Amino acid sequence: MTTICWFRRGLRLDDHPALSAAAAGGPVVPLVILDPAEAAARPASAERQALALRPLDEALRRHGSRLVVRRGQPREVLRDLIAETGATVVHTTAGFPSASDDDPAAAVQACGAELRVHPPGDLAERGSVLTGAGGTFKVFSPFFRALKRVDVAAPIGVPELTAPASWPGSEPLDWSEARASMRHGWDPVARAARPGADAALGSLEEFLDGPVADYPEHRDLPGLAATSGLSDALAVGEISARSVWHRCLPAWRSGAPGVEDFLSELAWREFARDLLHDFPELATRCWRPEWEHFPWEGDSDAAEAWRRGETGVEMVDAGMRELFATGRMHNRVRMIAASYLTKHLLTDWRVGLAWFEQTLTDWDAASNAMNWQWVAGCGPDASPFFRVFNPDTQAKKFDGDGAYRRYWLSPDGAGARLFAEAAPRSWGVDPSAPRPEPLVDLSAGRARALAAYESLRAANS
Ligand SMILES: Cc1cc2nc3c(=O)[nH]c(=O)nc-3n(C[C@H](O)[C@H](O)[C@H](O)COP(=O)(O)OP(=O)(O)OC[C@H]3O[C@@H](n4cnc5c(N)ncnc54)[C@H](O)[C@@H]3O)c2cc1C
């Protein structure tokens, strides 16, 4: 009896519980659905997924199988493919709902089949790392201590795959709707990405061979390639978190420098997933309800200047250019840019979250929402709102020689040229134009943010 394995992210063959379960049931049709709603909502992430499809198809073919790609709303695609193959079971992975607002389980059931949902290969099952009182951790440090006591399950191998008697038709591996939604006219994401499960493993090995030892000192320096660069591979599921964890275990146990710091960052990803599981509105509502009364400003010309990298603040503008031109942004710079938006510009964190959702190749519902709420001060274990980053001081500390800012801002910087090519024509980007004047005076912006915070505190006291 043929079964369908619907790859929702999880774009790999090893450590894939849904694929292993499908393979145990007989011939498997591996399916990817290119949903236009997903391409419109998260184009950079969708394009990053599209880049992973060719390596996935090649890996499947090495195992006597192949990828079936279909475009459309998941419920319609599943209905058609179930009818074509006679499958009675569809296996898939939990945690990655599509942007289409449909209910695939009901759609599958309506065809007389069953949707079986499997875990994604995270470090722990959702809801299994709990406080002594049985609740979800709201603070990271005790969460990480508890996670370290968990016996993280070993990754599972690639299952033996059996081909169906005949292959259903497939569409091209290209997700042109995603590129169209990015408004680039060309594909900067493809230049910046290293797609495929083998490449992800290669990135991990290269990182563990060298940079990890200096990770604690260098991870905040955006001018260096000092971090693993694995977030987009983890987000699209070319490598599982527990594969990374187990690969690091021997070095960690032998006390190799930097490894625990690295695993603690991976644990932040896990912490975010537990928080989203516990509070599904994490991307739309302040986790601390009183913050819904904070006088945030909505979208505005200032927010648009932030999106385009035209705030007049070097570190913020460099980061926003990096984001638009590559789909990536260094973590330290994300914190600086997010803090500037929510504090100096007093803009609602959801405005920034939405832009990151459109532009990040490593977009992840849980990590994006948790980090925005963390920076804005309204989330669990959040950075206190009154701690307002001064972006110029941050630049001196973390980009002391100015290399990162020159790359993205100076007229002859390679990054500045990349950004000028990537930006929509309507933005009128001219790399040789003088830098814009600051949108706000940093001291005045800080004072305004602190006054707003005081008004919230007074209202709640
Ligand atoms: C406002 C804001 C929004 C963010 N949105 C996302 C997002 O949508 N998707 C995403 O994957 N990360 C997000 N991050 C976290 C972080 O910036 C990226 O994971 C990191 O830059 C990835 O680079 P790396 O793979 O080289 O990380 P490394 O330093 O090598 O870290 C290893 C892995 O740990 C995880 N990780 C590291 N830092 C964090 C963190 N703060 N929160 C959660 N996981 C973390 C990532 O999976 C990363 O690949 C956001 C951070 C901020 C401040």
Strand content: 5-15%
Please identify the top-level CATH class of the largest domain: Mainly Alpha
Looking at CATH, the homologous superfamily of the largest domain is DNA Cyclobutane Dipyrimidine Photolyase, subunit A, domain 3
Helix content: 40-55%
CATH architecture of the largest domain, by name, is: Orthogonal Bundle
- Helix/strand order, N-terminal first: EHEHHEHEHEHHHHHHHHHHHHHHHHH
Span between termini: 64 Å
Largest sheet: 5 strands, parallel
The poorly predicted ranges are none
Strand order of the largest sheet: 3-2-1-4-5
Textual characterization of the structure:
There is one protein chain. The protein is mostly helical. The protein folds into three domains: 1-120, 3-Layer(aba) Sandwich (Rossmann fold); 121-154 and 197-278, Alpha Horseshoe (Serine Threonine Protein Phosphatase 5, Tetratricopeptide repeat); 289-460, DNA Cyclobutane Dipyrimidine Photolyase, subunit A, domain 3, CATH 1.10.579. Helix content is 50%, strand content 5%. The chain is built from 22 helices and five strands. The chain has helices at residues 17-24, 36-41, 43-62, 74-85, 104-110, 140-149, 176-182, 188-192, 197-209, 215-218, 231-236, 241-253, 259-278, 301-308, 314-326, 331-344, 349-359, 365-376, 391-398, 403-409, 414-422, 442-460; strands at residues 3-6, 28-34, 68-71, 89-93, 114-118. The chain has a five-stranded parallel sheet with strand order 3-2-1-4-5, sandwiched between helices. β1, α1 (17-24) and β2 form a beta-alpha-beta unit. The longest helix is centred in the first third of the chain and has 20 residues, at 43-62. The chain starts with a strand and ends with a helix. The mean pLDDT is 95. Flavin-adenine dinucleotide binds next to α11, α13, α16 and α18.
